[in-house]
Amino acid sequence: MLRGAHAITLDAKGRLAIPTRFRDWLREECDSQLVCTIDINHPCLLLFPLTEWEEIERRLRQLSSLNQQERRLQRLLLGYASECELDGNGRLLVPAPLREHAGLEKETMLVGQLNKFEIWSQAQWRLQIESDLAALPQLDWSQSTNLRDFSL
User: How confident is the model at residue 148 (pLDDT cuts 50, 70, 90)?
Assistant: First the structure.
């Protein structure tokens, strides 16, 4: 399981060091093979173990390239998808177009989301968390059947 928010540093070559606690799991789960692409709703990146990404590709393949909305989704997610491999030091190279999309600079956040990571600039992450926390009191939880009975 990929969870937690981790402050990490993007080096001058555009590499991120994955926290040690995830490295062994990623080596076992996906042989250190990951896929990074853009998030279509937020200024961040999505980093998937290859096994998870293959499921997304299967679902994308089922979409119609003749439907404009479905084609846009395919174009963005697949067009930006970049295979990444953890090196011997647990680092992965984030390609320049992806770094530009997310506005990544030195200070970044790696945020576990169960089956994937989100990669944010620290500044954008803070803004997103502030926005999410401010929106919580106004949400109508009954509108979502999945959230209606959710409690901690």
Answer: confident
